[in-house]
Amino acid sequence: MPIYRFNGVESKMEDTIQLPMTMGQGPNTSTQMLNFIVIKATSTYNAILGRTGLHALKAVASSYHLKIKFPTRNGIGEERGDQKMARSCYVAALRPDGIGGQVLPIEDMDTSDNED
């Protein structure tokens, strides 16, 4: 089954893998086993959380607020995006040469609140 990237280029599915995914911080976390499709493609993304992943987490996403909220045992958890980082990834994805194979590992991302 072919998968089409955001720029319309067809990528072939290599395999699938099931991995635990934890969202949230501190006591407000939720972990679910999610299925990911593995493809060979240069991308600005490490992984894409689709409808099935959001459904498994019982999450609600707001692209306007760059935020995902989901229930946890200790209340409501949330993940917040970074507007500057999102814009940078979007612009890189639109370039004909892509990002040159560079991917920002999730561990290296600054997830601190930068509300100015």
Description:
- With 116 residues, this protein is an alpha+beta fold.
- Helices cover 16% and strands 40% of the residues.
- The protein contains two helices and six strands; from the N terminus they run βββαβββα.
- Strands 1-2-3 form a three-stranded antiparallel β-sheet. The protein has a three-stranded antiparallel β-sheet with strand order 4-5-6, with no helix packed on it.
- The protein is globular.
- The mean pLDDT is 79.
Helical residue percent band: 10-25%
Mean pLDDT value: 79
Largest sheet: 3 strands, antiparallel
**Strand content bin:** 35-45%
Q: Number of DSSP strands?
A: 6
Strand order of the largest sheet: 1-2-3
- Structural class by secondary-structure content: alpha+beta
Instruction: Give the CA-based shape.
Output: globular
Q: Output the helix-strand order.
A: EEEHEEEH
How many distinct helices? 2
- Rg from Cα: 15 Å
Kindly report how far apart the N and C termini lie. Answer: 45 Å
List the helices and strands and how they pair.
Elements (H helix, E strand, L loop, with lengths): L1 E3 L5 E16 L2 E12 L11 H6 L3 E3 L4 E6 L2 E6 L2 H12 L22
Antiparallel strand pairs: 1-2, 2-3, 4-5, 5-6
Observed structural traits:
116 residues, alpha+beta, three-stranded antiparallel beta sheet, 40% strand
